[in-house]
Amino acid sequence: MHFRICADATLRGPDNAVAARYSEGLWRLGQRQHRAFECGGPVYLRVTNSDGSRERLGPYDCVKAAEGAIFTHDSRLGMHASRAEAGLAAGVWQEIAFLSAV
To answer: What is the pTM for the complete model shown?
Structure first.
């Protein structure tokens, strides 16, 4: 099982269907809005950097997506959305796949 956050701010499942959209700091899932979501581990990440290079990270026992970033416990691993008001567009991951195994 896996899902991924794509460059178009969508959360997609293994069949590429859109499960949720990220907008204005919220994940929109149907008519509902969520500030964050969490995955229990072990969770591996396969990230695509802004320059197109890929990295494999993990395993982590818990990963959380909130406020445009990916966290493990209290540490920020990376960003999936830019924060234009803070001028932080560089270093945003273009795609993040959440994997149960590598």
So the answer is: 0.84
